TrEMBL record:
GO terms for molecular function: 3'-5' exonuclease activity; DNA binding; DNA-directed DNA polymerase activity. SMART domains: EXOIII. This is DNA polymerase-3 subunit epsilon. Residues 1-168 form the Exonuclease domain. GO terms for cellular component: cytosol. GO terms for biological process: DNA replication. It comes from Kribbella pratensis. InterPro entries: BRCT_dom_sf, DnaQ, Ribonucl_H, RNaseH-like_sf, RNaseH_sf. Keywords: Exonuclease, Hydrolase, Nuclease.
Length: 413
């Protein structure tokens, strides 16, 4: 009756020619009992994207089938079944795109599928968003994060757990009856053997991953959780690359989120991350630095983190004494770019007085870039993006400066 799916992909956007590189399917009967499992790596004939997230190496997929080789096998597994996934629209979007590359349209309809992320919010108001958090709440353990089969098995067990909250037949039986009768086209493919990922292939890990699992859901706008769950996935490894940031912008656009909505979600996200980090009543300097780095990546300031930690701690948190409020410590190297209202020399003096080390050019060791326009296409800005050096606005830099250094007088001579 059900086909639970999960995919690992080379990126976030099928519209940007990102591809599926691993897919797993677990078939369940009407009671949620496992009937069959199937998984394979796929050779996308392109680079593998964020390998630090999915843990798949190029060597793993060199001998793997291409999507066209397994299309018929996959279609046989999905046809006549209601598809289930965690943030299922993400997986369905990629599968529709893969089949479209083969010149076929398949009846994978989001509105006729089941999403365990949505079910969690429906059944348990206040439930967390990530698969890990939902499984933890249900007492389900997961091993092998971000392997398609581990995540699919976990989603299948989670869905089986949720099924018990509904009568038999469930209220979506009518949708299943529609799906069961939908015709599938003739698909290409062979009986090629699946390629299973080696045991070395990893998944998400570490303190930031555990922190992300604690973040609550966001009820408005309706697309918020679909956007934030992808942000969760990226941040599970503690960083957002320039490519990740570009993809998030496109995801927000495709979801219909406006710039103010995204800014609001980022502000909320940073505050929620800071609050979760205080969960056991303490935060180490390294952990605080991690949260500050995320704040910078999302266009926020470390003062936002300060405020959230003060609220979470009931005022007990001690704000660190530092020249920069974005997690940039004394001695941080920085570069200016663009025409600013005030003379560049004045900003240079302010930076030196605050303990920063201005440079003329962006280098791999540069800590951050201050831009008159954060979307600048200057040589310095392009170099910063290539080297993953954070770019901040002049106004944000002004806020980094201690009050006594905001407007230092220029010395004569």
């Amino acid at each position: 009756m059900y086909a639970v799916i999960d995919t690992e992909t080379t990126g976030l956007l099928p519209s940007h020619r990102h591809r599926v590189i691993e897919i797993a399917v677990v078939l369940l009967d009407a009671r949620g009992q496992v009937e069959h499992e199937w998984v394979t790596l796929l050779n996308p004939q392109r680079d593998l994207g964020p390998q630090h997230i999915h843990g798949i190496l190029t060597a793993d997929v060199l001998a793997a089938p291409e999507f066209g080789d397994i299309a018929r096998q996959l279609g046989d597994l999905l046809a006549g079944r209601m598809v289930v996934g965690h943030n299922v629209e993400f997986d369905l979007g990629f599968l529709r795109a893969e089949f479209a590359r083969l010149g076929v349209t398949v009846p994978l309809i989001t509105e006729r599928s089941m999403c365990t992320m949505a079910l969690a919010g429906y059944l348990y108001p206040g439930a967390k968003r990530t698969l890990g958090a939902c499984c933890t709440a249900a007492g389900i353990s997961i091993e092998g994060w971000h392997s398609a089969m581990a995540d699919t098995r976990a989603t299948a067990e989670l869905f089986s757990h949720y099924l018990k909250a509904f009568p038999s037949p469930p209220p979506w039986q009518w949708a299943y009856e529609e799906v069961r009768r939908l015709p599938w086209p003739a698909l290409p493919g062979t009986d090629v053997a699946p390629t299973v990922r080696p045991v070395h292939a990893g998944g998400r890990h570490g303190w930031m991953s555990r922190l992300v699992d604690q973040l609550p859901r966001v009820p408005e706008p309706p697309q918020a959780d679909s956007y934030l769950v992808l942000l969760d996935t990226i941040l599970a490894n503690g960083e957002i690359t320039a490519a990740d940031a570009d993809q998030l912008v496109q995801v927000a656009t495709e979801l219909g989120l406006t710039r103010p909505q995204v800014d609001s979600l980022h502000r909320w996200y940073v505050a929620a991350l800071a609050t979760a980090s205080w969960g056991d009543g303490t935060i180490t300097p390294d952990q605080r630095n991690d949260v500050d780095r995320v704040a910078v990546m999302l266009g926020r300031r470390a003062t936002d983190v300060d405020e959230a930690l003060l609220r979470a701690s009931g005022g007990r948190y001690v704000v660190p004494d530092r020249p920069g409020a974005r997690g940039f410590p004394p001695g941080s190297t920085m570069v200016f770019t663009g025409d600013m209202v005030e003379p560049r020399e004045l900003w240079w003096d302010r930076a030196v007085a605050a303990g920063f080390v201005p440079q003329e050019a962006v280098r791999p060791e540069t800590t951050f870039l201050v831009a008159a326009d954060v979307d600048s296409l200057s040589v310095k800005a392009r170099a910063a993006r290539q080297l993953n050096v954070p770019i901040i606005s002049v106004d944000d830099f002004r806020r980094l400066l201690p009050a006594t250094h905001q407007n230092p007088e220029r010395k004569a001579g």
